[in-house]
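idk why but the lab printer keeps eating my pages so im just putting this in chat instead. protein + s-citryldethia Coenzyme A:
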Amino acid sequence: MAVGEYKPGLEGVPATQSNISYVDGLTGLLEYRGIRIEDLCKYSSFLETSYLLVFGELPKALQLKEFEHEVVHRRRIKYRIRDMIKCFPDNAHPMDALQTCVSALGMFYPLEDLHDAEYIYQAAIRLLAKVPTMVAAFHMMRQGNDPVMPKDGLGYAANFLYMLNEKVPDPLAAHVFDVCLTLHAEHTVNASTFSALVTASTLTDPYTVLSSAIGTLAGPLHGGANEEVMKMLEEIGSIENVKPFLERKIERKEKIMGFGHRVYKVKDPRAPILQDLAHKLFDQFGHDRYYDIALELEKQATEKLSSKGIYPNVDFYSGLVYKKLGIPLDLFTPIFAIARVPGWLAHWKEQLADNRLFRPTQVYTGLHDITYTPIEARE
Ligand code: SDX
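predcted complex ->
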């Protein structure tokens, strides 16, 4: 078997064939099932987009109605999972809590036939419906409160915001949040989706597959960047501090959070959509000075880094939107996870249809034929 050339981080190496989403990193194009993200954000909803991603086509009216009904009425979680959450440390990171909850969720639904369309459908509905409830439940219980039960009359996005503080959100806030979820729903073979593919290739269950993906998304180079961006903007503190901050980061060869991308070598097409959403919120709920700092940082960082193809990515502005929605900082990455559930499910389902265990090779750089040295002879 010929060994291919080693590519650190598998940069540029196709790991799968897929018709779920498409990214052109040079022109800043993103399509889900061939439909541009700009159109889905303008005309679709997160649940309709989730259906598109998982089942491959836009649902007809009755299909969407049934899908929404299923998700809405499956949002509650088992009391045993609530009781388990009570044992988590209050200062646990919500991504750790979510990964544990998703893995525990799988304990209640033993693996059946992975090729049974009904099993796949039920698992998809459960994960789409219950992941937001588990994030919100942890958030309420870490404050010593009972979790807020899902409110059946509320849509997907509005209900999540409601479960965070038992207040029915303003319609604009709910709409903006729904668009944010659509924006983060899928993005070809990113690190967490690749984790999902590798885990799925061993034919384990979808709850374990998503638990792997959630663990991968948590890192600051991936989904964790949105939380780091807000910490960075708070550290900068003023427009005047942008220049010295940036000079220090570049001098120390430290990464600017929310900038750069393995694929996009222009501004991430999701970033301007998030900026527009931020403006909509600022118009209604008041400005956020951190947005001005972000704009100045984008201007100066782009001047210095665009020659390397480094521009703002999806994580650079998302935190400003979530902050204006009143969402706590450490829930920003769990929200990314909530949004990415349909993308992970779509890739899991697609791979099952033509599965092959992921088992790459390596370039060995170690030694051979070393003699074993007994412990008494070791200096
Ligand atoms: C997401 O893959 C996806 O699709 C992910 C995602 C999705 O939807 O799933 O789009 C979501 O994860 C977005 C990315 C969020 N991460 C961050 O914002 C963290 C900061 N970004 C960097 O860590 C970095 O840009 C990566 C990890 C995102 C991509 O890095 P690469 O492709 O591995 O690039 P690299 O680290 O090899 O850097 C290449 C050069 C280096 O300079 P030189 O050593 O060649 O001189 O670019 C520089 C890097 O120092 N560089 C940066 C930089 N990112 C790369 N310099 C300053 N700031 C940065 N952010």
